User: Which sequence fits this backbone?
């Protein structure tokens, strides 16, 4: 058992912005993933065909994206 | 530190995605199936001669409602979990002296309002058979535009609230910020064009069930991310602070 009495309370200290900025690149990757679920082969298309659209079709509708 | 937060955000998102898949399967698929049945009836009524030559499906319905739905919601949830962690990394320690858990919960609630409630009021989610195929570009642009406006309104409201904090105190400054958000969002919703492409004969009950399921899915997603990420982030931040602490106590 760990001694909870010495567990320090976390004091909210902001993370310096310059530490966060490089990770925004991953934010871009996340957005790309969202794009493939939400809009690829619908509003616009990077990959020809309709396979991705049809594959994620139910999710696209239920997650609120315009489809069809 | 940010790397650890990002990984935990994606983990919380993945977990939320599993729950969301269950909800989507149980609540979401029945109205989707009914909407597709309606679509087929319409097609048959329009082309009475073609009843026996259904075109082959690219992806079967079983795949769509199984692994396809699973992939879609889990990728969506994991990606949003990661984005949420990045926003958290910016917000933590900057919106009052809130604990990691409180920051995470508050941020998720705000995200749900900005990303789901506001855009869905103007451009509600639609089941199959609703929507003209040739307007998909416009509808997608309006939907994304509404989300951008909504997020911008949230940030303006936050800035306004912070500005008024010294004069008004926390309660009234929060109310004022909320008022600014509402005003901006209402103005945008009045200015943006309406989209109504529900076919005349489409069953109202199915539309209602579908939309409730869709909003319920998002509610489960953001509640899970907000509540699961908090404790995970707290562990990361506590570890990061331990060094400083031993310093202070020495
Ligand atoms: Zn569709």
Assistant:
């Amino acid at each position: 058992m760990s001694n909870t009495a010495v567990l320090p309370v976390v004091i909210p200290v902001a993370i310096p912005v310059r530490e966060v900025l490089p990770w925004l690149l991953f934010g871009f990757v996340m957005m790309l993933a969202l794009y493939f679920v939400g809009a690829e082969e619908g509003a616009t298309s990077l990959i020809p065909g309709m396979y991705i659209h049809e594959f994620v079709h139910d999710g696209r509708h239920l997650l609120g994206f315009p489809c069809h | 530190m940010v790397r650890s937060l990002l990984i935990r955000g994606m983990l919380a998102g993945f977990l939320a995605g599993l729950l969301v898949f269950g909800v989507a399967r149980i609540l979401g698929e029945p109205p989707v199936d009914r909407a597709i049945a309606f679509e087929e009836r319409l097609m048959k009524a329009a082309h009475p001669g073609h009843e026996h030559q259904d075109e082959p499906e690219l992806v079967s319905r079983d795949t769509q409602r199984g692994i396809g739905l699973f992939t879609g919601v889990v990728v969506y949830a994991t990606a949003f979990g990661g984005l949420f962690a990045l926003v958290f990394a910016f917000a933590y320690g900057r919106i009052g002296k809130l604990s990691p858990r409180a920051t995470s919960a508050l941020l998720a609630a705000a995200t749900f309002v900005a990303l789901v409630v506001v855009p869905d009021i103007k451009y509600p989610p639609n089941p199959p058979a609703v929507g003209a195929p040739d307007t998909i570009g416009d509808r997608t642009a309006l939907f994304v535009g509404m989300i951008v406006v909504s997020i911008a309104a949230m940030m303006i409201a936050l800035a306004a609230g912070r500005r008024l904090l010294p004069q008004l105190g926390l309660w009234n400054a929060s109310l004022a910020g909320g008022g600014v958000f509402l005003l901006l969002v209402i103005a945008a919703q009045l200015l943006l064009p309406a989209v109504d492409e529900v076919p005349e004969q489409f069953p109202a009950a199915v539309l209602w069930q579908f939309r409730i399921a869709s909003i319920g899915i998002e509610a489960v997603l953001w509640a899970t991310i907000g509540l699961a990420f908090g404790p995970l982030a707290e562990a990361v931040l506590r570890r990061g602070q331990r060094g400083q602490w031993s310093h202070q106590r020495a």
